[in-house]
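If you are new to this repository, start here. Below is one unmodified record pulled from the training split, so you can see the exact layout before writing a loader.
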Amino acid sequence: MNPHRSPRPEDQRRMTIFFVAAALVMLASYFLITKPNMERARAEAAREKEQIAAVQQTPSAPVEMSLEEALEAGPRVTLETPKVFGSIPTKGLRFDDLLLQDYYTTLAKEEHVRLLSPNEARRSNFVEIGLLPADASVRVPSASTQWRVVTGEKLTPETPVILEWENGQGITYRRTISIDRRYVVTVVDEIRNNSETGVTFYPYALVSQTHHKPREGEVVAFEDRDAGIQHIGPIAYLNEKLHEESYEDVADEEMIQFSGVKGWLGITAKYWLTALLPKPGQSFDARFAWQKGDEDADIYQVDLRAAPLMVKANEKVKTEMRFFAGAKKLEILDDYEEQLGIEKLELAVDFGVLYILTKPLYHLLSFMGGYIHDEYGFAVSFGIALLLLTVLVRIVLFPLQNKAYRAMNRMKDLGPKLHALKEKYPDDKEKFQREVMEMYKREKINPASGCLPILLQIPIFFALYKVIYITIDMRHAPFWGWIHDLSAPDLTNVFNLFGLLPFETPAFLVVGAWPLLYGLTMWMQQELNPKPEDETQKQIFAMLPWIFTFVFAKFPAGLVIYYTWSNLLGIVQQYSLRKLNPGMAPPKKPRKGKKKADDSADAKAD
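And here is the target side for that same chain:
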């Protein structure tokens, strides 16, 4: 055989037919299978985008109703538990009317704290739970759907409410709403598909808040102001990571998305929380979103969309969603973590970076306040607990402060020697440093020993500051005298003699009695400490009590009382340290009369 023989004509024909047939198969596969699949995928992606967008509320219309008018616009199912009360509209079934039984807006206790309010109100805040259809032609309940009450005229922990709506396409939606004795609402949606085709839904839930700029003359409550000390705004714990975004950051980004996550999310205030609580282990897509509403309205929303739910023909399927709406009481959040398996719900209370210190101190303060109230019935139980906690902290830190005081006084004794070395080596800094270190070795003094105990105390005092600021126990808690709310500033004013003079001063000049006492005790404590040798430092230290008096005038009274009491204890402690360290007290200044007598005696001796 000749290996270089040319192919026969019939072989060439077969090869040509093969390649033509292969090309035709590939073209047919593309146009009949691949292209339609791509178009379906694009259409599905577009539908999903529309569904995600549908979860986001459109900007609310200009406010035309008062809160009372909005609540009376249609029939409602009343709601009441030992902790909350309100109502749910049968049209739309949005959770938009919820008030707290134990908390009031003012000390007069005339109006309960309102957590949820209708979309038609000026400052709306509501929770919505629903279903999005994969097929846009399938009718699902919306904000305008009028539900029929099946059972239950009033929602209580013992009596759930069941409502129903039929969409006219053979699908019936039945919703069961239940609530526990505290702050968690559970919504179970049952979809009965009596049609001949299967349908797919995406369960969703959202928390929506509308913010308006304060009108002229409108006063913003102290607890609603963002002081920058704790997080206020959208919050989420997703895939074992805490996400905290300020309202400003969300507005700048417009949308922050999280895909395929597990956990919980919501919107937090200083003392209150509204959070969506999916089943533990359930995966979902979530986001923080912002839209500009009409006029001066800003709409903030956190929402989630769960995995698709397939309901076959002539079958029924259930889906469940919970949400929390209530006070951020740590023991309640801890209980829900254990009972419902909601991971790290306690992080809704902003303990900050010093969590390991802040949380135990929070528990200790809350326990002491509750024990004093239960055992002795004192109205000022939390104030007493605050004073006792300050004493405990001072006792625990006493060994550190004693060590720091000893070290500072030993360093002070070396002052003349250090001054002599400076004069001896005015131009040779390297030689001066070597001699100083040799002197420290001879005297067996560590120059950092006075600073280290003080540095160790800083995290503890910062943690205490954080606890006192964030704890809900301090809200509307009274103290002796004129302080009726430890969470608000002392509103007395030294510049008009505490109200005796008939005029008001500018806000920056309002300095109450407790901030004044704080400045005074700070000055007294400075007088007991060794004075710095540098004249500039002396002047700065002399100004600090005045500066801090004005700074603390804007702080909650509880914080000012804590620091004032801490200063008083510090003054007592300074005297105790002097007793424990004899010879370390600064020399007493001679009286003028005595000095003259001593001078006369010296003159006679000469």
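Two things worth knowing about this chain: The domain at 52-350 is CATH 2.70.98.90 (Beta-galactosidase; Chain A, domain 5). Residues 56-62, 598-606 have pLDDT under 50 and may be disordered.
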